[in-house]
Design a protein that fits this description.
By secondary structure, the chain is of the alpha/beta class. It is 38% helix and 20% strand. The strands form three sheets. A five-stranded parallel beta sheet has the order 2-1-3-4-5, sandwiched between helices. The longest helix has 19 residues.
């Protein structure tokens, strides 16, 4: 999994810090959401995230309490957690690791340090879980085999270029999420290649033609971008 496929949730009651982390992480190619309390974070579908950046000292529910709750539930117990906190005593650090934290970063911290720690945790946890990852992404009769890099439409294999495959995979894997052209360029094309918005449009048109009756699922949100609509 490349950096551009990772989803990260930042949970901190300091809104300015959330925005700073979000900006820098998105600049690195991650998909980032924020929540300003543990209670708000728990209303989200946390299984969608590859990593949680979790503050310790927040409102009514602390980061420790939230992590304890997540680690006690089967569906969320394996989500990697990095604590970001001003509480850096030995006891606090030990508590964090005993709760199953993957790393513990004391405030104030440098953004560069956070990025390095995040990459290390994601690399380590991805290597651990890759063998368990599903090899197929599908919607009704539309199926992508991630190992063989093939696309099957209602049982018939259809030839796709690498770019077309990655475009379809990106949208199908996060159904309902609107991707701007720039986001698609960042996720699909190499960073050293100049890609115009028109190039994205042309490739989207090709994908639509190849997936037959499912072409209507690749919808356009005028002024924003493209998304896979499975309603």
């Amino acid at each position: 999994m490349s950096e551009n496929n990772y989803r990260i949730l930042v949970v901190d009651d300091e809104q300015d810090l959330c925005e700073i982390l979000k900006f820098n992480l998105e600049t690195e190619g991650y998909t980032v959401d924020t929540a300003n309390s543990a209670e708000e974070a728990l209303t989200l579908n946390l299984t969608e995230y590859n990593l949680l950046l979790l503050d310790v000292m927040m409102g009514e529910m602390s980061g420790f309490a939230m992590a304890r709750k997540l680690k006690s539930q089967e569906e969320t117990k394996d989500i990697p957690v990095i604590f970001l906190t001003a509480r850096d005593t030995e006891n606090d650090t030990v508590t964090g690791f005993n709760l199953g934290a993957d790393d513990y970063i004391a405030k104030p911290f440098s953004i560069r340090e956070v990025m390095v720690r995040i990459r290390a945790v994601l690399r380590r946890t991805t290597e651990h879980h890759d063998t368990d990852a599903p090899a197929v992404v599908k919607y009704m009769g539309l199926e992508l085999n991630l190992d063989r890099k093939t696309v099957t439409v209602d049982g018939e294999e259809v030839p796709f270029t690498k770019t077309e495959f990655e475009l379809l995979h990106t949208m199908l894997n996060e159904r309902g999420r609107v991707f701007s052209r720039q986001e698609l360029i960042t996720r699909v094309w190499p960073s050293d290649v100049l890609v115009l918005d028109r190039t994205v449009d042309v490739n989207i048109t090709r994908v639509r033609k190849k997936i037959g009756q499912y072409s209507k699922c690749i919808a356009t949100r005028l002024g924003f971008g493209y998304y896979f609509d499975n309603r």
